[in-house]
Design a protein that fits this description.
rod-shaped; R3H domain-containing protein; mainly alpha; Ribosomal Protein S8, Chain: A, domain 1; nucleic acid binding; 9 helices; R3H_sperm-antigen
Length: about 150
C-alpha cells in the first residue's frame, strides 16, 4: 500500500486514485498511510464487501457534488455536473420570477401584458417643477365675463 501511495504522489498526472474493496483493517492502514503522506482519503460504498477507498491530492480536493456522486455509487462527470447545476439555476430563476408576479398580474396579464408595469415604471419621470407655480400663472388677468365667453 505504501508503494502505491508513493507512486501516486510521484505521478503528477493523477489527482485521484481508487483502491479495490478491502476489509476494515486494510482500510484503516491505508487511511493512516495516506494521512502521513499528506493526502486526503475517503471511504465509499454501502456494505463492507464493496467498501472502497479513494485518495485525493490536497490541492485537488473533491467538491461536495463530486462526493455526493461517489457516495451514491456513480462516477463523477464534471460536464454532467455543470449541466445539472445550470438546469437547477434555471428552474430556480423561473420559480423566483413566478413568485414575484402576484396572482393579480397572472389573472389580468391578457389585458395589461406581461411587461407593461416594468415598461411604465421605466418611463415615469418626476415633474421637476412640482409644487412650484410661477407668479404670472397665479393672477387671473381676465374678467369673469371673458372666461364665460370662452366657455
Amino acid at each position: 500500500m505504501e508503494k502505491e501511495v508513493s507512486d501516486f504522489i510521484q505521478d503528477s498526472g493523477q489527482i485521484k486514485k481508487k483502491f479495490q474493496p478491502m476489509n476494515k483493517t486494510e482500510k484503516s492502514i491505508l487511511h493512516d498511510v495516506v494521512e502521513v503522506a499528506g493526502l486526503t482519503s475517503i471511504s465509499f460504498g454501502e456494505d463492507d464487501e464493496c467498501h472502497y477507498v479513494r485518495i485525493f491530492k490536497k490541492e485537488f480536493a473533491p467538491s461536495d457534488e463530486e462526493l455526493d456522486s461517489y457516495h451514491s455509487g456513480e462516477e463523477w462527470d464534471p460536464q454532467e455536473a455543470e449541466d445539472k447545476r445550470k438546469l437547477e439555476e434555471l428552474t430556480q430563476r423561473q420559480g423566483e420570477e413566478a413568485a414575484q408576479q402576484g396572482p393579480v398580474v397572472d389573472k389580468y396579464s391578457h389585458l395589461i401584458g406581461k411587461g407593461a408595469a416594468k415598461d411604465a415604471a421605466h418611463m415615469l419621470q418626476a415633474n421637476k417643477t412640482y409644487g412650484c407655480v410661477p407668479v404670472a400663472n397665479k393672477r387671473d388677468t381676465g374678467s369673469t365675463e371673458e372666461a364665460m365667453n370662452e366657455i
